[in-house]
Amino acid sequence: MRERGTITRAEVSIQTQLSRSAVSNLVTELIDSGRIVERAGAAKGPGSGSGRPSLVLAPVLPDGVLLAIDFGHNHLRVAAADMAGGIRAERSAELDVDAHAAQAMDRCANLIAWVLADAGVERGAVLAAAAGIPGPLDNGAQRKVRSPTILADWVDLSPAVELERRIGHPVAIDNDANLGALGELHYGAGRDAGDFIYVKASHGIGASIVLNGQPYRGASGIAGEIGHTQIPGGAQWCRCGNRGCLETAVSIEIVRAELHRLRPALVDPAVAAEDPVARRILTEAGRTIGRVVADLCNCLNPAAVILGGDLGEYGAAVVDGLRDSIDRYAQPAVSETVTVRPAANGRRAELLGAIALAAQHATYHL
Ligand SMILES: [Zn+2]
To answer: What is the CA radius of gyration of the chain?
Structure first.
């Protein structure tokens, strides 16, 4: 129910492989204790053979708000949402998050105070909080930032500890790509896919590998750093100290600079995607990312590749390039079954993922 919102008794029986009578006993117990309700689901519509809606089970959601925090390299977004994911209030700020960790977290605490005031709720009404950090975190209990090449001023900091100290509430933490993937899994383009790759292409290029509905983190929490895969013919030095990494060939800054050089009047992504020259630049960027993603597809056989981040805002032009490379370099049996699509939530996927993560933490305590 936490994953889907609602579920029928028959679906519970299939998922758990428990008999219908065993499911019935457990459902009665949960209804009697006030933790779930049974109500009419959506009507199946004409042609389904039955106009009568089936009964569905739904969790009883607690009152109160979830706090969602999205740290980008150059921005900070904070939202207060209800348990069903509806946003009650939201604020954002532009700031150099990478270079000023303490300042970014102070600012975050301020925005949270404003957002709670906007939503008209007291601090005591906060059920859970979650935040996304734009860099890899380790798997230790404190989830510390470990990469000196990505967030130099944040190294050895525990954002969870720092934020809890400032806002007085525990904060669940994950990296931005994993939260973007969660946002698409719960509220966007990943809802029908349990196994998919979410690519966040912005300042850097990271991926979240979702297996069986869960982001895969790897042994030390660094899984998905596809931006540092060597691409054929790449020779430029990368900030990680290697040459020819994917990030040296494609990033939002590189694409914007190229668009500005050839088509200076095109600022709006939706307009740029319609221009034939800009389209070529965008499709080529997609192809370059797709060369790396194609190898991942061969390894993992995902149902979907979802493109998020600033480059995802350019939509079909970049997605078409990704598709080209996957068709060209992944095994035919793999490329035939994978769909490639832009993130449904665009640059807000990470914020929505933070809401989903906070909701999971709030539900654990029901
Ligand atoms: Zn690199």
So the answer is: 22
Based on the domain organization, do 54 and 76 belong to the same domain? no
Question: Is residue 321 included in any domain, yes or no?
Answer: yes
Distance of CA 158 from the midpoint of ligand 1 (Å): 24
On whether residue 4 sits in a domain, the answer given is no
- CATH, residue 98: 3.30.420.40
Residues 139 and 230 in one domain: no
Based on the structure, what is the number of domains in the chain? 3
Ion ligand 1 residues within 5 Å by Cβ: 228, 238, 240, 242, 245
Q: Under a CB-based contact definition with an 8 Å cutoff, are residues 297 and 333 in contact?
A: no
239 Cα to the center of ligand 1, angstroms: 6
What is the 244 CA–ligand 1 centroid distance (Å)? 7
* Residue 74: closest CA among 342, 256, 216, 238: 256
Q: If 0-12 CB within 10 Å is exposed, 13-18 middle and 19+ buried, where does residue 285 land?
A: buried
pLDDT in tens, 262-316: 988 877 877 777 889 999 999 999 999 999 999 999 999 999 999 999 999 888 9
**Distances, alpha carbon 3 to alpha carbons 160, 182, 213, 355, 356, in Å:** 24, 11, 9, 13, 9
> What is the DSSP secondary-structure string of 47-80?
TSS--SPPEEEEE-PPSSEEEEEEE-SSEEEEEE
Predicted pLDDT of residue 49:
53
Q: Which domain holds residue 89?
A: 65-179+349-364
